[in-house]
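User: Sequence in, structure out. Go.
Assistant: Echoing your sequence, followed by the structure tokens.
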Amino acid sequence: LAKCQFIVPSPMSARHGYTQTGKRSAHTLQNTGPRKYLVVEFDEGTHDDHASLLSHLNSHITQLVCAVMSGNKSLHGWFRVENWDEEKQISFFKRATSIGADPATWTRSQFVRMPNGTRNNGAKQTTLYLSK
């Protein structure tokens, strides 16, 4: 897995599904199961800025379970939301985007950086924090 650069943070519910254009694929919204984690990513600011924003969300909303360096300019925070209803998930994510998080990671099937993975340019995606 260390050679992989991406992962979907929700479990897959089937080996294949169909894209919105009807193409059979192993990576679709249709075959992505219920959300376990919401990944919050910040592109603007420094890594210290990103860490502060993740800490802010951690102390007010839910538990930060993992923080991953993208191997470039961003920090990805994984938050456990598996037992939350969609309304609570939306509320948390709206708060995250209101302080600068990228809205793209809302989609359940969105690829995010693999913890301890490797980008295609060889840069490591270091796990900076992992909760017990």
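User: And one key feature?
Assistant: Residues 22 and 28 are 10 Å apart (CA to CA).
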